[in-house]
Amino acid sequence: xxxxxxxxxxxxxxxxxxxxxxxxxxxxxxxxxxxxxxxxxxxxxxxxxxxxxxxxxxxxxxxxxxxxxxxxxxxxxxxxxxxxxxxxxxxxxxxxxxxxxxxxxxxxxxxxxxxxxxxxxxxxxxxxxxxxxxxxxxxxxxxxxxxxxxxxxxxxxxxxxxxxxxxxxxxxxxxxxxxxxxxxxxxxxxxxxxxxxxxxxxxxxxxxxxxxxxxxxxxxxxxxxxxxxxxxxxxxxxxxxxxxxxxxxxxxxxxxxxxxxxxxxxxxxxxxxxxxxxxxxxxxxxxxxxxxxxxxxxxxxxxxxxxxxxxxxxxxxxxxxxxxxxxxxxxxxxxxxxxxxxxxxxxxxxxxxxxxxxxxxxxxxxxxxxxxxxxxxxxxxxxxxxxxxxxxxxxxxxxxxxxxxxxxxxxxxxxxxxxxxxxxxxxxxxxxxxxxxxxxxxxxxxxxxxxxxxxxxxxxxxxxxxxxxxxxxxxxxxxxxxxxxxxxxxxxxxxxxxxxxxxx
Amino acid sequence: xxxxxxxxxxxxxxxxxxxxxxxxxxxxxxxxxxxxxxxxxxxxxxxxxxxxxxxxxxxxxxxxxxxxxxxxxxxxxxxxxxxxxxxxxxxxxxxxxxxxxxxxxxxxxxxxxxxxxxxxxxxxxxxxxxxxxxxxxxxxxxxxxxxxxxxxxxxxxxxxxxxxxxxxxxxxxxxxxxxxxxxxxxxxxxxxxxxxxxxxxxxxxxxxxxxxxxxxxxxxxxxxxxxxxxxxxxxxxxxxxxxxxxxxxxxxxxxxxxxxxxxxxxxxxxxxxxxxxxxxxxxxxxxxxxxxxxxxxxxxxxxxx
Lengths: 504, 305
Known about the structure:
The complex is a heterodimer.
Chain A: H1 2-16, E1 28-33, H2 48-57, E2 62-64, E3 71-73, E4 76-83, E5 86-91, H3 105-115, E6 131-138, E7 141-146, H4 153-157, H5 166-179, E8 187-193, E9 197-202, E10 219-224, H6 228-236, E11 242-244, H7 248-254, E12 260-275, H8 289-298, H9 301-309, H10 339-348, E13 355-361, H11 365-377, E14 380-386, H12 389-397, E15 403-408, H13 420-424, H14 435-446, H15 450-466, E16 470-483, E17 486-487, E18 502-503
Parallel strand pairs in A: 1-10, 13-14, 13-15
Antiparallel strand pairs in A: 2-3, 4-5, 5-7, 6-7, 8-9, 9-10, 11-16, 12-15, 12-16, 17-18
Helix pairs in contact in A: 1-6, 1-7, 3-5, 8-10, 14-15
Chain B: H1 2-30, H2 33-38, H3 44-53, H4 60-72, H5 86-121, H6 126-140, H7 143-157, H8 170-199, H9 202-209, H10 214-226, H11 228-243, H12 246-251, H13 257-266, H14 270-298, H15 300-304
Helix pairs in contact in B: 1-14, 5-6, 5-8, 5-11, 6-8, 7-8, 8-10, 8-11, 11-14, 13-14
């Protein structure tokens, strides 16, 4: 609401303001982020803006086409699974890093062995802790050995695992790589003022065979502006050309500003309600499947999508994001919004007058509050316990919380193994502990045969839905606002691809 | 004066110690630091590892003593987020905050003292009411809102000044005004009441009777006496500006200590949070101490009493 009022005021003021020239004139795209990455070294930060920069500065062995989700050759021209724990890659010749260093097997071996060594304290351990070691076969062939069968390895090699120039990295280390990043990607860093801005120039020598199109925008300039209203003001005043993570109410207002385009995109972040049923659950009422089904029937997810979640999101019936490998709702029951049925199920379970329960939540409070209303309508009276994520996770892990409004972004990894197993494989966050689900997920996680994995995940997801172990809700949207001069396309992995953006 | 100074210094040191203990305790009681640091997706082994590596498994009193001993030597540890020494990060950001604070207090004093004097000279007239209105609006309006209004008018509509960033002195104008306007009303009201009291006193009547010109009476005789409580208040306000610029620095994307505090809270970077809270508290303590000394020097009754 605060954003809506402020943006409305800013928008009204702008109607009277004289139009200024945008970044198209000097072929410089000015963008803003609201978080300062602790380091520009791709392995030493875990913020979204760091991921975005990483994809512009560095390259991957393989590339996942975001339109088809198909893997394509990038720094590697071919790859094969030798066995369930071994991958081999044929590398591309003739690629050079921004500093002129040629790319070869030494770069791959050095990068992978450095980042997978825990002593080097990579921040995002889950991105690299599956790598046992990398070996050089010859100047343009490498072998990667995995700690255990890990079919999602290709997804990681197409995402967070980027290739560094070995000589440069050995010389400067993570600190030097943050101060002056050197990669082989479509943009090179020409200036970095920590906490303030990063300036990029198009890599004119970007390898022509890359599956990514050659960049056409000459310069990128990233400024760090923490306040969303200031970002909107800069966008309207032409100080910026592109912003993201625009709050929905602000996006609505910005839509009315001429010269601006607002686009809604979907994200991989999925939302669900956790219903703890394990032995030590503080909410034994949820152990009854009829109660769990009643909660599933009580919430009108379609209406929530329209009124509180916003454009760009979709209703989900299973606990995964649809583009993820293995994700499907085929064979899973769907619980339609039916408060009468919910009440009947509660009565059948011995709660004709409903019951009281603590409801834990940590983000999108307005959505939690909408759900509180739906639950109250069928007799479930909730006490909201709203807190920081870490505190809520702790409470769930320690068995102090049993009913929670949860979300998970899978670290933008397009594979079910990065999501569902975290909450159903007897790990710390498993609030169900059903052996059948665990075994099915194990079968999916450890096989390198795509068909075996698909079937295993499908059965696991269907079983979770049949047992109503959670209430799958929807994916979350994200809003981008940019100058009308820019041709920009969003993707669900929340990764803006400026190398394919163009001035109109 | 020496005994008075010693007493005040001891009091300041005790306050500093209490603040440091409270700050340490608050950070550690508000959350399990190891869990907060581990972030989304961490396993219990990761949390245990962090707990051991950073010594969070030791008793809180031991951790506090250790932290205090190192803080006394100027070592605030390493930022968990930026992985560089906290002292280096804070000192890198401090000039921006100091410049903003100095500009803001200068603007606040330049605005509030003349207006306070004017209001006292014409009590209960439209001039007085106008200054009262300015003060009430300044005090009541949230600083983020006023900052947005400034951005709207001077940044967007008139396009006279930059909206965000800290590249040039021009970048500091809008944030300094936003910060100053929040601090000015209190100084203005105190100047007015002090001046009203002094202007009614006998020695002012004598000065006027002697035929002294109005500026001499006002500034040489009246203001010098009326300003004593304003000194103490201005010191506190400067402390507020140095520590309370979190919102303003965030809105205007100024890379100062306030912005750093915001980032540190966002990332559970508790060594930085602790260092900043202590630093801001020290600002207040030192400024209050100096104001006490100035007041004691200006008015002997204070140091004797």
